[in-house]
Amino acid sequence: MDYVKPGEVLNAMIETGENKARLSILQMLAKGFLGGAILAFATTLAFTATQQTSLGIVGALIFPVGFVIIVLLGLELVTSSFALIPLAVLERRVPLSRMLANFGWVILGHLIGCAVYAILYGLTITKMGTDFSHPLIQTIIQTSEAKTVAYKHMGGSGLALVTIKAVLCNWMVTLGVVMGMTSRSTAGKIAAMWLPILIFFAQGFEHAVVNMFVIPAGMMLGANVSFADWWVWNQIPVLIGNFLGGVVFTGLLLYVSQKGTSLASQVERDASSASSSLNASDEPGRRAVPAATAGAGKSL
């Protein structure tokens, strides 16, 4: 069957978290670089679709293509790992230090990947810095300012708001990567992953990796945003909110709700394996009896 039961999905989440935590530094940097750049590609594609149609929902329908590419290629997205690696730590598969190392190196990879794409994309839409009439330039600038100085003007309420939006965002993003584990076929994985990502992007929630591209890209194009505005009023609270959304609402709650079924699924698989082995070992004996009987009949 194509469908994977929730108990088996939980096992896959823990195993995936363990594998991610055991990557080498070079692998984490490379996979983080590619994950950040590909998500930045998807973001500008979504902006383009929204600008061309004047419908935000069209951009939201298209944006998950980046997430799908990242997951299917086994690349790194730190926001997804927020729901997976903590479970491996909880199960004592990996130490806490490996989890923190993964988060740190992958975030660095994201920042580099997003910066590279931001520079190349900026040169593209400005025609090597000679023409600033492209409509997406203003879109990126306005988005960059809306994600930083708009919260700054709200003060403490702004920090609370951006954190809440980050929690809601990664609740869906991590659910997207988990939904991809509910199918064994590529088409099934794509369809399952698409839905939660569409939900988060369509409602304007805050995603740390998307912001690693949008905000610095806006700064490069002339947005009235400082480095401190970027990190204090968005990047740090969004990373915190994304972590809480992923580890609490997806990782821990699915762990609590499916832990028993996970054990039951393992018992069923072990029993099935034992039964298959027993049947296989009995098979020669069953074939030998008729042969012996036939031989005895002939001797008589």
TrEMBL record:
Subcellular location: Membrane
Key words, A-Z: Membrane, Transmembrane, Transmembrane helix
Residue span of region Disordered: 270-300
Membrane topology according to the record: Multi-pass membrane protein
Assigned GO CC terms: plasma membrane
Main location group: membrane
Entry's transmembrane regions: 28-49, 61-90, 102-123, 159-181, 193-215, 235-256
Record has Transmembrane as a keyword: yes
Bias type Low complexity, positions: 272-281
One Gene Ontology MF term: formate transmembrane transporter activity
Family that this chain belongs to: Belongs to the FNT transporter (TC 1.A.16) family.
This protein's name: Formate/nitrite transporter family protein
Lineage: Bacteria, Bacillati, Bacillota, Bacilli, Bacillales
